[in-house]
Each structure stands twice: as structure tokens, then as C-alpha cells.
Amino acid sequence: MQALAQLDEPSSNEPRVTQYVAYTDFTTAESKRQTASIYVFTPYMNLDAHQHPIVEYQTQLMFHFDPWTKSIHVSVLETLGAASKLAFFDYQNHGLATVALQALIGLGRKNGFHNIDGVVSSFDGHDDLLRISDVLQRVGFTVQTDPENPHVGEYSYGLSA
User: 2-117 architecture in CATH?
Assistant: First the structure.
């Protein structure tokens, strides 16, 4: 595991997470296809039903990468915990999805990748897709949607050298 980003500025009145660590299991092994993840852990609101701290990550950004074409494809951004489901933690405005996406962009640049892409879908409602798109666009991704299929979007990020 390799640490990518960290912040330790405890605050009791800040709506966004001010303590976190982002880390990855990514390696530069030269095989045709690889899968890796970026994990973000924070102690903020990370308690079980008995109010004991949970030692696990809240956000996982899983991606496939091809070292030959220098491309990254995001598979899923998953928020884990008691209610394990596909979600962007940014819905609660804590910023963990943003931390994970920024760490992925930095990892891609550091390792000479050319682009990051993925598909996002939200069948819970068009507003959810708009929120997800907003998170992606805030960190610099381009999001394309089809008016005929308002629940699916494609996103991409060009990495410059």
C-alpha cells in the first residue's frame, strides 16, 4: 500500500472531512491489464452501532489500467460500511469522492498515463446523475450525457505530461 494524500486538521464545526488518508494498491508491474483501487479512510463519523471506531475505509475508487496504452478506466466508486452500496460520499458533502478522484489524477500523471475515463449511471433519479456529474466536473472531468438516456453518462479526463 502506498499513501497518496493525507490531511490531519481536526475540526468540530467543518462540514467537510478534515482528517483523512488516501492510499492505493497500485503497482507499476508491466502486465497487459491490471486492476487497482484508491481507498480513502477517515475517522470522521466512522462509528459502529455501539459508537466504537471502525477501522475500515469509507470510499473505494476501483479502476482498471493498461500500461501499454497508458489508459485508466474507472470501474466503480463505492462507499462501504453498514449500508454498503454504490454512492459518492460527496452527496453528504464530506469530500471523500473528491479526494479519491484527485488522488487518481495525481497517480495517473505520476505514472505517465494519458487519459482516465468511465461510465456513470444513476437509476435512482436524474438529480443523482447531476450530483455525480458535478463532483466529476469540479475536479476537471468532462461529462457527456445523452438526453434520450438521462440516467447514464460518460466521463473523461485528459492527463497532460
Answer: 3-Layer(aba) Sandwich (3.40)
